[in-house]
Specification:
alpha/beta; four-stranded antiparallel β-sheet; binds adenosine-5'-triphosphate; binds magnesium ion; six-stranded mixed β-sheet; Rossmann fold
Length: 232
């Protein structure tokens, strides 16, 4: 099996993914064989009950965790068996990740939070700052460059987190409940923004959400039920 960008335009693929958690004597089988194929520019919603394993799946698709069985391919590269540093490099090169809780670094400004993945890629401070400013501008945050996360509203923090995920122009943007802790108006703004950026950059989107209205905006909806993904 060799999925590459050029032969079938798949940017994110998984096959037979399984993930168990050992809790004392009990083995929790959370993912029981998940298959997924996301193509270039596609917008996919993943839904499912709380505890169904959505975050667990996203962490595997984002090369942040290792499966008990199955394979993950990101932008044509097989993740299984890569060293931790090779996985970090792949994440930095091909993926953007917006976590369920924003995960911004508290001691750094909005600008530094967005510029950080670019520094890690080896860009100069100046170049990274320019690019970070441009992305923050696109998410409507140009008046808040110097604010630290604690000095931002919930919706603003989420927009900074999205800017950070987008700064490296990822092939795939993975988002875990990007509007979960936002009010209706801010949630709508974030979704409009994500849609706009998807159209402008062609990044594929995988959005975990409980919100049917958001899911309706995507090209395809899948349900995570009993450890497998099913069309809904
Ligand atoms: N490190 C862990 N050790 C043991 N069990 C875990 C661990 N992480 C998650 N779980 C369990 O696995 C199940 C799936 O968790 P996960 O966070 O993937 O759910 P989710 O679908 O994202 O839920 P939510 O919609 O509430 O965010 C849950 O029942 C959770 O308690
Ligand atoms: Mg979750």
């Amino acid at each position: 099996m060799n999925y590459t960008f050029s032969d079938n335009k798949a940017v994110l693929v998984c096959k037979g993914l399984e993930r168990n958690y050992q809790l004392g004597p009990e083995k929790l089988k959370i993912l029981r064989g998940v298959d997924l194929n996301v193509v270039e520019g596609e917008r996919l919603a993943i839904m499912g009950a709380s505890g169904a394993g959505k975050t667990t799946l996203l962490n595997l698709l984002g090369a942040l965790d290792e499966p008990d069985a199955g394979e993950v391919w990101i932008a044509g590269t097989k993740v299984n068996g890569l060293s931790e540093s090779a996985r970090a490099d792949l994440r930095n090169r091909a993926l953007g990740f917006v976590f369920q809780f924003h995960h911004l670094l508290p001691e750094f400004s909005a600008l530094e939070n967005v510029a950080m993945p670019l520094w890690l890629r080896g860009q100069s401070r100046k170049q990274a700052a320019e690019q970070a400013k441009a992305v923050l501008d696109r998410v409507g945050m140009s008046a808040r460059f110097e604010h630290k996360p604690a000095e931002l509203s919930g919706g603003e923090r989420q927009r900074v987190a999205i800017a950070r995920a987008l700064a490296g122009e990822p092939r795939v943007l993975l988002m875990d409940e990007p509007t979960g802790n936002l009010d209706r108006d801010n949630a709508k703004r974030v979704i409009d923004l994500i849609e706009q950026l998807n159209q402008q950059t062609g990044s594929a989107l995988v959005v975990v959400t409980h919100d049917q209205e958001i899911a309706n905006h995507m090209d395809r909806q899948l349900q995570l039920t009993e450890g497998r993904l099913q069309s809904s």
